[in-house]
């Protein structure tokens, strides 16, 4: 119950990021709703297709449509207000990231994938939406360029997959995974932790 | 029989739109054929993957390859003539839109999805090809930005899903759904009906 | 055994092309690894999803992650050296192309698809990685614009599917298919063989 609420909450925040980007790119109302939907559910759909969970949860249950369309409408009519709520949105997004990492990994493990692969699919659940959002609006995906975002998700998902493999109790392992993910994401946001990019083409291009 | 002919006809017209765009973007012959193929079948493939109809009809039957390749060749060698046929192509495209909306929704219902989700998948059948065409040629998908296109498809698909749920007879419901879709699309083309886009970023960007 | 080694070798080379492109686009380390992974395995994943081989081999076996991540690290830290190795990389890429064409076609045939479709899926195995790499870094896919690349793959895959259909012995048919693909690719690289592009928009745009 709490779990479902968190899952829908995370979907909502991811969808808001899609709606905001759609508005910025001057899509019409329908386009904004599509990008909101894609940002909210594309990661979970990709994971479900890859593990053979068909139809994907985000297609089978209408509540994912409802929540992403609601987010799209909020984003469409309240872009100005959202822009001013930057910090809460970032914090909620970080929470959604951790949640998707944990739930995505767990679902992949439940479908019998090995722990390493399950952690990658957990991360894919987190970043798929942002990649779809950016491609639909013709941006190089942010997640490929900046900050500890996917890496935070991967660390959380990986620690969880490792803990399950070692037979540790589930709840503490999941809490630790989510916490590690959240810690890394917050360090990136507020301390500027990030990965290097290659020096090679910096001067030549 | 009539049904199959219409289905292939719609695929052909959608593929023509892909071929024309490929030519405009100066792709080579192979590239034009790929974009024609994607424009013709990507919507149906996405729908089939999501409902678990694997392999997708457009992969399992060679006639979809044949018709899209034929459209690609026509588009490659006769771009100038097609450009002059704007009105008939638009009308045929509108007919294809209605047909895909109805057949896509029906297939999703047949796979046991609920009516609301089935209508969304019907719409996805219509717009998937155009989205694939635009992404492969690096354009923000037209369908996200302009005119009543997806919305016409959604209205037709939705009315049909609703009629089926209420137990109304199938043929009249499908005719009504297709007619509603066609009406909205033609109003958009000839009366300029469209959705709003957000005012917010108009001045600030 | 030899087969597996060749398969992983081809995946590695394709992944190198992704890593190099990621570095050129100034992605961070994570982004480079993602694009390397996508370039290495996207073609095989697309094929497996379309034929219903779920989870796709590239997801089910961790060695595909290992080899693409290794390629990504090499690409990230040794871009300068790779740029100087242009000829060997092109040759290895041509070898990978032939191998993917043959193995992709064989897998599609094994899943009961008809020979024509199987050849198309064999080609898709070859080009899917490059398309994913280019879309993630916002380029119009090279394979749609230039050189005999996909066509070489299609010729090899098609000749093989034809040979199997005629009941010819498997090994010679596969060797012939791979050889035809390699020949066409090398002619394109060193003799400039290519497909035409349409003249129509050359002057008007």
UniProtKB/TrEMBL annotation, chains A, B, C:
- Sequence intervals crossing the membrane: 29-50, 62-83, 116-136, 173-193
The primary site where this protein sits is membrane
Query: Can the keyword Membrane be found in this entry's annotation?
Result: yes
- Where does it live in the cell? Cell membrane
- Which positions fall inside the Glycine transporter domain? 5-78, 91-161
Family per record: Belongs to the UPF0126 family.
Designated name of the protein: Membrane protein
Origin organism is Reyranella soli
């Amino acid at each position: 119950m709490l779990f479902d609420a968190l899952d829908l909450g995370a979907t909502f925040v991811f969808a808001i990021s899609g709606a905001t980007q759609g508005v910025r790119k001057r899509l019409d109302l329908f386009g904004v709703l599509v990008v909101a939907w894609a940002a909210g559910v594309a990661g979970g759909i990709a994971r479900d297709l890859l593990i053979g969970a068909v139809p994907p949860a985000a297609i089978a249950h209408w509540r994912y449509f409802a929540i992403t369309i609601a987010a799209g409408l909020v984003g469409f009519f309240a872009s100005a207000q959202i822009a001013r709520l930057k910090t809460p949105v970032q914090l909620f997004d970080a929470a959604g990231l951790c949640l998707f990492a944990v739930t995505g990994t767990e679902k992949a493990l439940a479908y019998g994938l090995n722990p390493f692969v399950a952690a990658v699919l957990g991360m894919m659940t987190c970043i798929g939406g942002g990649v779809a959002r950016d491609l639909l609006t013709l941006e190089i995906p942010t997640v490929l360029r900046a900050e500890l975002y996917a890496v935070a998700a991967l660390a959380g998902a990986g620690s969880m997959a490792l803990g399950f493999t070692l037979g540790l109790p589930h709840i503490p392992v999941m809490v630790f995974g989510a916490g590690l993910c959240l810690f890394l994401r917050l360090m990136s946001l507020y301390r500027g932790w990030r990965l290097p990019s290659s020096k090679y083409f910096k001067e030549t291009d």
